[in-house]
Design a protein that fits this description.
single chain; alpha/beta; ABC transporter transmembrane region fold; Rossmann fold; 2 domains; 12 strands; disordered C terminus
Amino acid sequence: MFKTILKSLREYKKYAILTPITMIIEVSCECFIPYVMSLLINMMEDYDGVSAFDTKQFVIYCVILVALAFTGLAGGFLAAKFAAKAATGLAKNLRKDMYYRIQEFSFENIDRFSASSLVTRMTTDMANIQMAFGMIIRNAVRTPLMVVFSVTMCFVMNVKLGIIYLCMVPVIFIALLLVGKFAMPVFSKVFTRYDELNESVEENINGIRVVKNYVRSDYETEKFDKASDNLCKGLTLGERIVALNTPIMQLGIYTSMVVVSVFGSWLIINSNSTELTVGNLSSYLTYGMQILMSLMFLSMILVMISLSMPAIRRVAEVMQENPTISNPKNPVMEVKDGSIEFKNVSFKYNEKAERNALNNVNVKIESGMTVGILGGTGASKTTFVNLISRLYDVTSGEVLVGGENVKNYDLKVLRDQVSVVLQKNILFSGTIASNLRWGKADATQEELERVCKISCADEFINRFPDGYETKIEQGGSNVSGGQKQRLCIARALLKSPKVLILDDSTSAVDTKTDAIIRQGLKEFLPETTKIIIAQRLTSVENADLVIVLDNGEINGVGTNEELLKNNKIYQEVWEIQNKTHASEKEEM
């Protein structure tokens, strides 16, 4: 897990190494300063006012103190600088690596993570990892070194007093570990509540029109308040546990310092400063404060570890997720034609699923044909076409495109030649032209106008004052559903694919426009295999072949005339839709 995260250090690894090195310099200087101070105090204490004052020795001590102070300051400054570069660099690379990893995921991988969870991992989790890493590479070295050096210097000056600090440190350390042990599970649960909060916000913003139409603002507010309160309660509980760090440390350290002060004063008085001097006692108290500050940093490290461990685990889950679909070693780089064949294909979305979404599908489609796919809700129509562009891999059997198993193709080559207009039409913020050029980045204005004419998008584009440079808001919120569908069809046509799949992509346009689009596809793309998923029979009645799906199985295959004669499902749909049309005409 840690190895996975640290791989993203890369060019910032040198800063992560330099940080503890410079921190050692700072700690060494800080630990020697109290010792030199004790020598200076002892020197002043020993001066009787009669003999000549040792000015040279005094100056040497002062110079050493100044040198140690500035060296420690430089070491601390460099450590802070290097730690900041290493932490921000790790977060930058890790965020980038995580984003690239998500781009490699298949639909099956993405199905395992919710959108809100991925957003939390890219933001909140990443921020916690960055803070924790920066603190750890500094203080994970500083804290133990400072404690070890301080206790060692105490033993050098007086073994008896050194034992007091030596006994106190492990007691406080164990107490801090226990606090961290109880805090970590609490913070682990908090991150799932971040997901719930983000999910509430995401759903509300994406569905704001539905919320307004159904006057459900109060309900959404209550849902957000509940998620926010749960998050607050979790964080409050965690902070309460962590807050025990400070009183535990202060109790231990100040108790030790009181004992040191009392016992040290007794030693000075009873030994007439032979066992312990005033300077040594002063240094002992300074070392005690250094140990206190070090343990405070240790408590901060434990808090950050408590916060970052769940974050590291969640980010590592994404980084360690292996894409279920990848390029073969020697991929086929050309799709010969638009022929499609399903050979004994079965598919289920999850290995643990009780039944297949598609079961034993066998069908052959010749290149250039127009094929309609019909079926009720849940008949697996979208699943069927998703296997053609290898958005999912079959559980068993083979899917062939251009006479080659789709698993043998380079993914980019296959998906460039099998163009899909998805059921959910998505446009991105930008202009109409920039959205269309998703299909072909270097498309000319003439090419844009040509595909828009085929998809009937030119009708409304030419009415806009800015034409193809008209701004599109995020998600295409400033265009209608029918306009969005036509732009998405035009975008797919720019690829000049060998297979064009329209997944219920004309449901929001009127019957007349639907017919014009189908006629345009037939005239301008005669060699392209066109697969049309539709609910309206008028969209598929002139197709060369119609496939009827029912519960993931092929219920019938044939032309409109053939299915009207021998397929019960097709006959029922025909009768229902004809009656509907007849009643609509009578009402008119």
